[in-house]
Amino acid sequence: MASTVPTDHAAVAYDATAPFYDSLTRQDDYTVFGDVLESLIKRADPPGVRLLDAGCGTGRSTAAFAERGFEPTGVDISPAMIDIARAKHGHTGIEFHVHDIRLPFEHGGPYDVVLCMSDIANYLADKAHLGEALASLGSVLRPGGVLVFDANTARGYQLMRESHVFDSEDLHAVLRGRFLPEDGDPHRFQLTMDAFRRTGPEANTWTRESVQHLQRHHSPAEFADLLDAAGLELLGAHGLERTGTLSDSLDEDRHTKGLYLAVRRTAA
Known about the structure:
By secondary structure, this protein is α/β, with parallel strands linked by helices. The protein contains nine helices and eleven strands. Strands 3-2-1-4-5-11-10 form a seven-stranded mixed sheet, with helices on both faces. Helix 7 (about 125-140) packs across helix 9. It is globular, with a radius of gyration of 18 Å.
């Protein structure tokens, strides 16, 4: 069946979000999450340090892993996000490219590690698109290479149905989501963000952007099946909390996020 998901919906959403994305995520602790991710990566023992940050956004995570001794390249589907990444981190020598991870990679590789964080898997709002992306990411990994990605859980989406408010001196954002059964897929989810942003020197000069983010809840079983089809072996699915606490197993009804670890199979 043909997909009903617009192919560029994530690019549209993040081009609109890019001007205030770093303000919106300024409370994210990259040190804590970096420690968790690096621990998982080392546990899987990748063959080297070449790293692809797939869905790199404004490049904060890419630069953070360069500081940890990896040799990263960043890609993102949003040209506006990549423009910011290049402006902020271009002096480091890190390469950033606009790329849709469902498509074959033309930027370097093979890689020893692929990171695909910040709900990127959920933005693949069609199961077929998720399968295409996992196959593409798997193909750019060396045998024994490591893939780490996160995804929102059933509990995470239930909580996102409630209004969430982010407030700072220059940004006020309200987020609220709902499932889209009328879209033909009961697991598809729309997150609406109304952002009010100070854009001028005067205290009362604000602009408003209303941005629609389309996602899909993919179950752990779906991930396992699609990873296997992509030639990747699932090593673990962990429950991830915003505090950085990592559980040995994933409970969709308790954890808000899942963190998945897989490796590319080596030849028999």
